Amino acid sequence: MGLYLRYIRLLLKSQLQYRASFAMTVLTQFLTPFAAFFGIYLLFERFGSIEGWTVYEVFLCFAIIGASFSTSTCIARGFDVFPNMIKNAGFDRFLVRPRGTIIQVLGSGFDIKRIGHLIQAIIVLIIAISGVKISWNIIKIFTLVNMIIGGACIFSGVYMLQAALAFWTVEGLEIANILTNGVREYASYPLDIFPKWITRFFTFIIPFSLVNYLPLKALLGHYSEHLIFYMLLPLVGILFIFPCILAWNFGVKHYCSTGS
Amino acid sequence: MKPYISALRVRYLNGLQYRAAALGGLTTQLFWGLMRIFLYNAFYKSGGQPPTMNFPELVSYIWLQQAFLAIIMLYDWDYELFDMITSGNISYELCRPCNLYGFWYVKLLSKRLASATLRFSPIILISLLLPTPYRLTLPHNIMSLLLFLVTMLLGSLLLVAISMLIYISVFKTMSPVGSMAFFGILGEFFSGMLIPIPLMPEWLQRICYIMPFRWTSDLPFRIYSGNISVSQGLMSIGVQILWIFVLVSMGLAMMKRITKRIVIQGG
Amino acid sequence: MITVKGLCKTFKVAKRSAGTKAAFKALFKREYDEIEALREVSFNIKAGEVVGYIGPNGAGKSTTIKIMTGILVPDSGSCEILGRIPWKDRIAHVKDIGVVFGQRSQLMWDIPVIDSFELLRDIYRVSDHQYRMNLDKLTDILDLTQILYTPVRQLSLGQRMRCEIAASLLHSPKILFLDEPTIGLDAVSKIAVRKFIKDINKENGVTVILTTHDMGDVEALTDRVLLIGKGQILFDGSFKKLKSRYNTYSILTVDHSGDGSISDMQNIEILSNINGRIVLQVDTSHRTVSSVIRQLSDSLEIRDISVESRPIEEIIAALYKEYRI
Description:
The complex is a heterotrimer of chains A (260), B (267) and C (325).
Chain A: H1 2-15, H2 19-47, H3 55-75, H4 77-80, H5 82-87, H6 91-95, H7 101-107, H8 115-131, H9 138-165, H10 177-186, H11 196-204, H12 208-219, H13 227-232, H14 236-258
Chain B: H1 2-17, H2 19-45, H3 55-67, H4 69-72, H5 79-87, H6 91-94, H7 100-129, H8 142-173, H9 176-190, H10 202-210, H11 218-225, H12 230-265
Helix pairs in contact in B: 1-7, 2-3, 2-7, 3-7, 3-11, 5-8, 7-8, 8-9, 8-11, 8-12
Chain C: E1 2-14, H1 20-28, E2 32-45, E3 50-54, H2 61-69, E4 76-81, H3 90-95, E5 97-101, H4 113-123, H5 128-142, H6 157-169, E6 175-179, H7 187-204, E7 207-211, H8 215-221, E8 224-229, E9 232-238, H9 239-246, E10 249-256, E11 268-274, E12 277-283, H10 289-299, E13 302-309, H11 312-323
């Protein structure tokens, strides 16, 4: 843990060196999801609602996914850019150190600039909470927090899987984009507006619906019982990381037997 | 002309080498198009103010956006150019017997055309074969198709002219991230890629029409589906040509000034 | 302490052919070439040795080093270093070795060198006391005091290289793997780096394995040379022995007063004869240099003489030629 904190400190120091570029990027990180948010607002202005969901409910969904995504792209940045490292044969450097590869990859990229996206998500969250009809209690607050944590864990796990794939091929990884940016974009809406098979994919393959959709319904009062169950459900996202770690270790083994 | 064609050919072949990348990219784009269609389908079903574009026209709009993404997406990242600009190291380029603006323009254009050539046919093919209501409809009529192709071509020339201005701006800002990301979002929004322009409120649509962005993508796609009539489309060609002329002239003038400055200051 | 026996490693590389037809074909079926990188490579290295590992590109040098550092698993054969199998006990093994990749940096680019050093201290879990001691000594020998607080991107290549070497020694490794450590360095830096490596070997008993194309490095540092070509060890012995085998001629430069001509001489080739300076190539397998000098002094008034052996690069080239690698 101490090592990870040292990594973060050094990365922050390194990133803050270029102040102008830093500010510019943070601004861009804010503007991009803001444009998406504005887009949603415009669509609701014209259409009024979507499959029964109101604009503030969708804002809530959007903000939670935004918070999860920005947190994970900040922490898991090392895995996101890992395919580049494989291309440049930089991974050997990690293998030559007496530490686990995962902590080293995590320590190679903590992207504080993503805070622009996080700030935007928090602003939309505030807007959403002010407009949505929820009777808040301690369970619901925890549900919200867990949704963000669970979502961040799943996104991070996907980045780890994408990085593990890079041990086999550096091409064709664009498809993992579906599970990161794709989910961020379309799971900003409650999943039931999409055909059933999509919801099923996001329950059993990558468990987003457990972490995001079902607890959202609980927040908005669609369920009257078992609210504690829905509060704990998003933590399934944390479990998702374990198979991802296995995939990563398998990838490292493969790399060591075939070379770069 | 020959060096430009061979440059195009090399890029095309290079693209073919990476078959896994091609397949992955294709799947991603199909996913994106499909999800967008599902999303708007849900919106259309919910009532509200009916937009000036019906659902089949919207579906065509979305599939054409995916098919020609390489041409219409303003955001682009040419490492080589950015490197040259930020280091001031354009001395090799200036030694070539070509106009620098022209050379870079053709480079950017050929990259996009090569990418688009690889990508558009599988997407068009697959989207034509999907079940209704998710499928790409055939063009409104022959004239629409022809007009679509012409405005698409002019649109790509226009887009590269805009893109050139962004690259040139980096000479001033010295920040590729700043210039490209900012105009990238701007272009994405005002060309109808985030929200199709006919779905925007009236006042915002009018703003879009004043800017050059929608004349690269929104225009040709709506001509294709008949949402914009042939007669309106013919007039629009004039607007496209005007924009191209204005932006290219600006670009040439700015480039001239910059290269003069660099040559005098010594790189 | 290093025992390598019968290492074999084969790689599969995807074939990428040129031309449109081949590119389309490759879309459907990928073909592979099999490259035998190592064929029964065996050698032993004792503690405290400085070994030069040379060979043309693609000969198998980096493959062997990767196996010894624990990054790569061989297809067959054994390797034991300090009683461990590198790829099996990776973390324990790696604690005792230091690696310098000449062209790839292990230091963080935008922050002061000292910050990277402290990170390495944490990664290797070096005790504060040991770290202080090593840092002071390394800073002193490598002359780093001025640059410790400078970001790496502002350093010259020579300064960066000195920092890289220091970084690799902070955790007191027993074995040091150096891959092209003097590449791109100016003469002064090269000498400094070479001197340092020799010192660290003598004083601390660090075993050094040096992969390089720079024969000056090999000559200055190593007692022993391993030559690898096409996956096999072709020569394992002292550098002197290597040189003497191929040191087939010497270059003799003679400055004279200008009068007198040289008579026909055996086993020599006159390379140039201008303005009182003669440059001769002497075939040392058939004649001694001293006999040539004696013969010259009979007919010339000699002012100055210098003798050079065959350039080492040529020796190596001849060596490669003989082994057909």
